[in-house]
Amino acid sequence: MIAQTILQQMGGHRFAITTGSKDFIGLGNGLLMSLSRNKTSANRLEITYDEGLDLYNMRFYRKTFSKKTFESKTKDIAKFEGIYFDMLEEIFTEVTGLNTRLF
Taking burial as the number of CB atoms within 10 A of a residue's CB, which of 6, 7, 36, 39 is the most buried? Predict the structure, then answer.
């Protein structure tokens, strides 16, 4: 339920189409998604909801996997804490350079 709410606050189906984001996964208290190519090297976004404060945390990161060694590596690109729901789209665009709206 929280993951669906976050996706709707980001723009829902319109957001997914305009940004190329995909592989949406509910985390119980948040949403994880794969990002399309953008101005940073981030390929994942994790948004978690802090119910006590009624605020969100966003973590943009790059996850890579080596087929030779079977190791998975994660590198943080940007983190934001204490975000209001109406700031989610703005921060997404600021970090990735991807517009969340067609006009």
Answer: 6
